[in-house]
Request: fold
Amino acid sequence: MRHEYLDRYSRLDGPLHRVSATLKLLVGLVLILTISLTPAGFLPVAREVPISLVHVGVAVVLVAAIAFSGIPWSYVLLRLTAMTPLVLFMALTVPISRGFEAGWHLMAAILAKGLLSFTVVLILVNTTPFDRLLSAAGRLGVPQILVATASFMYRYQFVFLDELSRMRRARQARTFRESWLGDTLGAARLIGPLLVRAFERAERVHHAMLARGFEGRVRTLDY
Amino acid sequence: MHIADGILSPTTQIVTGLISVAAIGLSVVKLRASLEEKLAPMIGVMAAGIFAGQMVNFWLPPLPASGHLMGGVLAAVVLGPWGAILALANVLLVQCFLYADGGPASLGANLFNMGIIGGALGYAIYDPLRRWIGGAKGTVFAAVFASWAILPISALAFSVELAVGGAYPFSTVATSMLFYHVLIGIGEALITGLVVSWIVAVRPDLIYQPLRQPGQVARVSQAMLGGLAVAASVVLFLAPLASGESDGLERVGEELGFVEHATAGAPAPFPDYELTKREGETVAGADVAGEGQPMASGWLSAANVTRGLGLLGTAVTFVLGIVLAQSVRGAPRARPAHAA
Reply:
């Protein structure tokens, strides 16, 4: 079964895909910090536009990066439109609770920050496979156990999502009536077995790794 | 409850980020000390399982909305506090980078609200309670209580984080967040309880048992007092921090009637404590800069009222927990009937 992730284009062979993962991760983190730490402001040329110059600059860099990377524009725009309602919902509560005049430039800043840092993540994940991103994080000093657990998680979530959909289908095939209580009990009866299956699989994986000489360090073919 | 970027102030992001990094570092050290990092596959695969478990939606009865398991306490029941922090950090990391759930710069705050409060504080509530009640029943009850208690606490943490930035008034956010999360907490507790009772019945060896030195006797009363002290200090120090600049607290006070009562009973000590004046200010909407002053310098200031209410709430929750636990504890302690 195919699962939809944000990193659909991570294995393209574009110019940005060939840049070292460590460098991309660092630049991405710096960009995210810059976006986040810039306070709400107005354009110096047109003071009624409530966007700070830094955010405009970052946006230009990101647009250039997307154009350069070969990620389809349609994909980026689709993802951004899917993301916008989530950010907008949070942003709208500011003018509602603060009054429009006091709150609307804050609202614009929340929208800009949310969407810009989402775009950074989108570009980062779509130009670098997730495992390389993780090993780059390891090289930057992130503890080994965190990198290892994250890569196991990335590997096995597909497996468990498949497992979940099989269990769900089996339940639907045997359930004739829907009710709230039955639904809730049903959710628990899905999650419990799922966790036990996860644990049993984890044990098997662990034993298989020990049998192959695992002594606590995950070694990867690092390129 | 995943926070997107731009909503929190930079200071909040940095502070919660530092706390989260420290918590991850501590868990890595603790796990390394006990397991030599060999548990990495276990934690990673379990994290994937918890992640998949979060995909199971269930309906929240009074609302036209569905919720899903946050899984902090569930993770701690199976993996222990340190493993739970790491597993939830992974879940949040993957959610942030691969599902756009929560902003990358707010990852620290999200981990604090869901991983540290859900996993570590949840475990701190669950473990003493479990050992105090004892048995399989104790495990299930403690998991139910901890997973219910954790949701309002993390909702409160969320409200404090939002309010510190100044864009959102604390009491408005806190009121609605608390209201919904007490309800969501019931769902979380129900599901966690059912899952844990299922695990206890099928694979009781999966329930995490901390390794203890022989001489190290678990002092439940001490642990519970410690937990109470932590909760009380959080209320004492964090609540006024947020309420100091918020404008809605007085409104809550007005609704509850205790402020009017106070001014009627003792008119002289704080003459500037005028509530009618303030309604005009908030309508004007120009309350960004001017609202920051504390209202009254008397003992009944907004901050102190918040403190008092928070402490009262903490104490009530605590006593309620003990009473409930005692009632559960009473039943299985009956002696086996020899005489009959």
In short: DSSP finds eleven helices and two strands in chain B.
